[in-house]
Design brief:
The strands form two sheets. This protein has a five-stranded mixed sheet with strand order 1-3-9-6-7, with no helix packed on it. It has a four-stranded mixed sheet with strand order 2-4-5-8, with no helix packed on it. It has one helix and nine strands, in the order αβββββββββ. The chain has about 140 residues and is mainly beta.
C-alpha cells in the first residue's frame, strides 16, 4: 500500500511540474531587457519567466509604509505584444519564502490589456523593510 501511495505522489508531482513549466516562457537569469529595471536584486539573483504574449516593461522596488508598517513594494509593468486583448497573472517569489501577486489589470470592463498597451501594478510585501536578496518573476496569460 505504501509503494502505491508513493508512486501516486511522484506522478502528481511530475504532472504539476510539467503543467507549470508549460505556463510561462523560457526562464532567464539576470536583468531582463526591461527599461524600468532598477537594482531591486542582484542580476544573478533575478529569474524572469514571461509568457510569449507579454513583455516585462518595468520592474522596480522601493520601501514605503503600507497599512502603517514599513513594507517593500514591487512595481511590475506588462505590455501586451499580441493583436488580441489579454489579462495576465503575475507571481513574485522572494528568496525569504514570501510571495505576492495578482492580476493585471485588476479591474475593468472587460479587465484586459489592449494590444500594444502597457499596464502596471505595485505589489506590497507587508513587513519587509528591505530589498530582497533574490526574486523570481512569473507572468502568465490567463485563458480567454
Amino acid at each position: 500500500m505504501g509503494a502505491k501511495r508513493a508512486g501516486m505522489f511522484w506522478a502528481v508531482g511530475v504532472l504539476a511540474a510539467v503543467l507549470l513549466a508549460g505556463c510561462a516562457g523560457t526562464p532567464t537569469r539576470g536583468t531582463p531587457n526591461v527599461a524600468g529595471t532598477d537594482s531591486c536584486v542582484p542580476a544573478e539573483r533575478l529569474e524572469v519567466q514571461v509568457a510569449p504574449e507579454a513583455q516585462l516593461t518595468e520592474l522596480s522596488c522601493f520601501v514605503k509604509p503600507y497599512k502603517k508598517v514599513q513594507s517593500l513594494h514591487i512595481k511590475v509593468g506588462v505590455k501586451n505584444v499580441t493583436d488580441k486583448p489579454h489579462r495576465y497573472r503575475v507571481n513574485l517569489f522572494l528568496d525569504n519564502g514570501k510571495a505576492v501577486g495578482g492580476l493585471i489589470p485588476r479591474k475593468g470592463k472587460p479587465p484586459v490589456v489592449k494590444p500594444g498597451e502597457t499596464a502596471t501594478f505595485t505589489y506590497p510585501v507587508k513587513g519587509m523593510a528591505g530589498k530582497p536578496g533574490g526574486l523570481t518573476v512569473l507572468v502568465k496569460t490567463i485563458g480567454e
